Amino acid sequence: MHLCFAEELRALEERAQLEYGIFPGALMDSAAEALYEALIHDTPSVPEEVLILCGGGNNGADGYTLAALCRERDIRTSVISVFEPTSPLCRERAYSCNTLDSPLFSFEGRDRVLCENLIRRATVIVDCVFGIGYDAKREPDPRFWDLCRLLSDSNAFIISADVPSGLDSDSGAFYRENGKAALVFADLTVTFTASKPALETAPGLQASGKVRCADVGIPKELFETAPRAFLTSKDLLTLLPKREAETSKANYGKLLSYCGSRDMPGAALLASLGALRCGIGLLTCTGYEDVLNVLKGRLCEPIYLPFLETFDDETDLERTKQALLKRLPNQSALLIGCGIGTGREQELFLEFLLSESNCPVVCDADALTILAAREDLLETYGEKLILTPHPGEMARLCHTTPSEVQLDRIRLATAFSARYGCTVVLKGNRTVVSSPDGRLCINPFGNPGMAKAGMGDLLAGMIAAFAAQKVLPFDAATLGVYLHAKAGDLCRDALGEMSLLAHDVADFIGHAARE
Predict the structure, then answer these.
(1) Residues whose CB is less than 8 angstroms from the CB of residue 256 and which lie 6 or more positions away in sequence, other chains included
(2) pTM for the full model?
(3) How many Å apart are CA 443 and CA 460, to the nearest integer?
(4) What is the 3-state secondary structure (H, E, C) of 181-247?
(5) Closest Cα partner for 97 from 118, 81, 83?
(6) CB neighbours of 88 closer than 8 A, spacing ≥ 6?
(7) Per DSSP, what are the bridge partners of residue 304?
(8) Which of 196, 227, 370, 474 is most deeply buried (CB count within 10 A of its CB)?
(9) Enclosing H/E stretch for 325
């Protein structure tokens, strides 16, 4: 399924007109038909009467076109012009609608009280006020504030055209003041041509209800050359490394994992489980000996390379580095950070591993905290990095707050990837994966039961395993995120959300890969 930003969609529509002679009016007719189909098939019951709210742009024109369609097919229809038509197509469609024998009211002036009563008693409302490109940073017109208040008190089934009005279609941001949102909360969103980022991730996800994507006539071949992004789907399973009959462990990657500490040995264990369950040929675990001893009691598959005593002694640090230097040239990926701590010795060791390796490096947890304070490392080694932050870690990397991250997840992830040349996995509900070349993936799977300690460690190990098997960084990240979430869903089905644990999810990775 395609996922497009507003600018990309405008470019697609322009190309459809220039190269195929498909004019905006034809697309608008198809959009109105898609909205009509939703009215007939997706509302709780086929409506006898519909209220349509129209803005002044082309989204409003969709609404006026729908009104004419409904009247032709004997559905009683009232139209409220929330804002006066401003675009040429909106003026044209509003004029055509006004010539028909049915009500059209203005949301201001003498019709205002009547409009409010229409909204209060409506059973089905179609929101065609704003479309893509809405600027959610600007304070809305008072009329829109009033409309949102009326809709929030309404019991009507609300269908939004393209995106819920008030929502920035690229980021999912919306304007809020004193705890109130200038936003329409839809039960169903009928989006056109392709899904929008705002419909697939928080915070816009909560306003969109069920989302249906309607083909309105943009030729499919245009998507092959247009900038685009994809939603995670089972198609990602085609990226799984193939295993041949004549093969050995050397064909499936060598991963060096530096994870865990005396206080958090479980982080290293879960990261190792994730890597092993995702087919890594040879896993080497390095770290403090008492951490590795925990792993040895649970896992017999890895090679163990302990640090020499502690790093308090610079001689031990140098001897440990020399031992690792013999291993690093043969590694096809590194995993660093799960539970290692954020002291000076960890910082020095992270810098050493980044400087001496020539392969993809997955950085998670404490490694991200170190990188947030060492922008020079991001600038120097960004192209080899796959970063897996949760919102708090992303906030540290971007020098902002977790709440600000959650308000603009997609834009922050894509901007960070572009700036440093790295792949970013911004975890959370609808995890976002972004690449330096602009590709984007939003994961629709997973469940709240996965909000438990250790899940991120497991995911980091999974992504690192695929990177070590020569899956390209963006593909390794999307594949790891997909299998992690699907395994979590299978585990939930077996154990319930309350009881599932990270190591339980590891046992379902193979089942997820076979679906």
Answers:
(1) 284, 286, 324, 327, 328, 331, 333, 334, 335
(2) 0.89
(3) 16
(4) ECCCCCCEEEEECCECHHHHCCCCHHHHCEEEEECCCCCHHHHHCCCCEEECCHHHHHHCCCCCCCC
(5) 81
(6) none
(7) 285
(8) 196
(9) helix 314-325
Cis peptide before 444 (omega within 30 of 0): no
Tell me the residue length of the chain.
515
Integer Cα distance of 346 and 128 in angstroms: 54
What is the Cα–Cα distance from 37 to 53, expressed in whole angstroms?
A: 18
Nearest to 387 by CA among 345, 349, 434: 434
Q: Could you tell me the two tokens for 474?
A: 């963006």
Tokens 């997820």: give the residue. Answer: 512
d(CA 344, CA 5): 42
pLDDT string in tens for the chain (515-residue length): 688 889 989 999 999 999 999 999 999 999 999 999 999 999 999 899 999 999 999 999 999 999 999 999 999 999 999 999 999 999 999 988 876 666 789 998 889 999 999 999 999 999 999 999 898 888 999 999 999 999 999 999 999 999 999 999 988 889 988 889 999 999 999 999 999 989 988 778 889 999 999 999 999 888 776 556 666 666 777 889 999 999 999 999 999 999 999 999 999 999 999 999 999 999 999 998 999 999 999 999 999 999 875 555 566 677 888 889 999 999 999 999 999 999 998 999 999 999 999 999 999 999 999 999 999 999 999 999 999 999 999 999 999 999 999 888 988 999 999 999 999 999 999 999 999 998 888 898 999 999 999 999 999 999 999 999 999 999 999 999 999 999 999 999 999 999 999 999 999 999 999 87
Pairing of strands 432-434, 423-426: antiparallel
Three state DSSP letters for 455-504: HHHHHHHHHHHHHHCCCCHHHHHHHHHHHHHHHHHHHHHHHCCCCCCHHH
